[in-house]
């Protein structure tokens, strides 16, 4: 059964509230998982598991949170910034994410800011519609 975007938003919000112990009103579309909601890398596995269960979809952790695997490839990072190849890889892995602002200054320290509630909603919506 197809879900509306509002239904997806509500379920994602519930998942993040449960996984991160935050209040409903903190889980806004623009809220970053790490900066605003206090998620740590260990939480990402729990979030993926809960999303899979809530939406009955299979999620590869690297598809939703690719930063860790990008950071371990010397061809993708140079002087603390993603290279053009790194940006291409990020675009391929995060088609649901607007990377315009990040591409202007692809500092690896800003990667975490890309992972917002809205990005998760977009990812889930894409996967539900692809099924």
Structure, described:
The chain has 2 domains: 1-61 and 115-131, Non-ribosomal Peptide Synthetase Peptidyl Carrier Protein, Chain A; 66-112, no CATH class. The chain has helices at residues 5-20, 41-55, 61-64, 67-71, 84-93, 100-104, 117-130, and strands at residues 77-78, 81-82. The longest helix is centred in the first third of the chain and has 16 residues, at 5-20. It is globular and about 40 Å long. It has a two-stranded antiparallel sheet. It has 7 helices and 2 strands, in the order ααααββααα. Helix content is 53%, strand content 3%. A hairpin with a 2-residue loop joins strand 1 and strand 2. It is mostly helical and 131 residues long. Helix 1 (5-20) crosses helix 2 (41-55) and helix 1 crosses helix 7.
């Amino acid at each position: 059964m197809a879900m509306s975007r509002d239904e997806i938003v509500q379920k994602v919000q519930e998942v993040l509230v449960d996984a991160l112990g935050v209040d409903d009103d903190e889980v806004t579309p623009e809220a970053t998982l790490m900066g605003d909601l206090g998620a740590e890398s260990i939480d990402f596995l729990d979030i993926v598991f809960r999303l899979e269960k809530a939406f009955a979809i299979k999620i590869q952790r690297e598809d939703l949170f690719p930063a860790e695997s990008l950071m371990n490839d010397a061809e993708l990072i140079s002087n603390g910034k993603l290279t053009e190849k790194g940006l291409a890889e990020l675009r391929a892995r995060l088609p649901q994410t607007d990377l315009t602002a990040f591409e202007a200054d692809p500092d690896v320290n800003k990667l975490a800011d890309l992972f917002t509630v809205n990005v998760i909603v977009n990812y889930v919506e894409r996967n539900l519609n692809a099924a």
